[in-house]
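User: Okay, second chain of the day. Same drill as before: sequence in, structure tokens out.
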Amino acid sequence: MTIETRAVGRRRPLLPSWQLPTPPEPAAREEPLTLRALITRIVHEEVAAFRQRQADRRFVRVLSEHQLSEGALAGRIDPAAHGNVDKIDAGAAVATALVGFEDGLYLVVIDGTEHRDLDEQVVLGPDTVVTFLRLVMLSGA
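Assistant: Same drill. Structure tokens below.
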């Protein structure tokens, strides 16, 4: 399944498209796949990917002489001090994404069909394209 992010009024995507494995077939799941469950799964996958990218950066980050000097003065040189990956709360990220959907900040389009109900059942295939379409408010609206 391919994930895309777009914004109304922009020709280019907000981010490059990326791939996620398609969830198991309906017969292999205990419950039908809803839009809510799909958004939750995508957010969890992206939080995990972000954590991995941050962890990978810890090993390759090179500190400048200024950063080394500041760290020495502070008594600790920490290449990962720019952020704490462990503080990322996947549950809070999911809640934010669901509230954003309910507030109409973005739409979800699956294979060209807009979905507006979080509890609506969705059907996905290996070639499915899921597009998150950010809605931009008009000035003065």
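The beta strands are 2-7, 15-19, 106-110, 113-115, 129-134.

User: Thanks, on to the next one.
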